[in-house]
Amino acid sequence: MIATFKRKASIYGAIGAIIPKVFLAYSLWVWVSLVLNTIALTIMVFFWRAVYSNTTEISGIGLDTTLHYILLAQVFLPLADMGMIFEFGYNLREGGIAHALLRPVDFQGSYYVQSLTRLATNLVLQIPLALVATFLFGLIWPTDIQTWLVFILSAVLGYSVLFFFDYLLACLTFYTTEVWGLGVLVMGISLFCSGSLIPLAMLPVGLQTIVYSLPFAQALYVPLSLLSGIEPLTEAPRLLLVQFTWLVCLWLLSRIVFKFAVRTVTVQGG
């Protein structure tokens, strides 16, 4: 058993080690992304200051809390990344999906390891943006250890929920020859429903119900609502239980859907 564990750890470790090398190969894009993210952060700050110019609260949330949340959301935006549809579509078009399916590792497991490694790499690359948010816009980081522990646990659960949901949607690419429309649609919905643009507590009650019934918010809004103080830590057990329930259900469903979808795979190139 120990030998098997070591062998699998070595295999998945090698798969994960590829991701940072990809970022190093495209270093120019990393710097371009930093500039674009800094511009986006600046726009968001001034936008919300303008929104609060004639009021002190929106849905019971003050300007300071909103800015705190928005700054954190821009720093931790990689938690809401969804690109599996384009990944599957590219591999189907270029023929890489055939090689991936033939590898002696779990197909979903390999993508999950790559996804976690990509998240860790992206968060490290967000450090310059975090410094801008801290020293230019006055972001105050929580100092309570318990808050950070709850946030990390919630972030891992939420990101895993989003991965399995993304994987589930990506299985739809096996039934089509073009994924651009589907990918853009999902990314657009995710941008709003994840809470990256607005604290979801500000939405009308009816719209909140719809958004909370989707898994997008679990990856970004739920962890950040705990970190920013929008949700008190007393709500953490309930929120973590909801995330865990989403995780189990989507993991099972994604495995089942993939089992049937892969039977229809047609390699378009190679």
SSE inventory with pairings:
Elements: H1 2-25, H2 27-51, E1 57-58, E2 61-62, H3 63-75, H4 84-94, H5 96-102, H6 107-125, H7 127-135, H8 145-170, H9 180-193, H10 205-212, H11 221-228, H12 236-261
Antiparallel strand pairs: 1-2
Global shape: globular
Mean pLDDT comes to 87
Low-confidence stretches: none
Judged by helices, strands and strand pairing, the structural class is mainly alpha
Percent in helix: over 70%
- Beta percentage is under 5%
Q: How many helices?
A: 12
Secondary structure tally: strands:
2
Q: Roughly how many Å is the radius of gyration?
A: 20 Å
Q: Give the SSE order as H and E letters.
A: HHEEHHHHHHHHHH
| Overall number of domains | 1
Q: Write out the strand line-up for the largest beta sheet, numbering strands in chain order.
A: 1-2
End-to-end distance: 37 Å
Largest sheet, described in full?
A: 2 strands, antiparallel
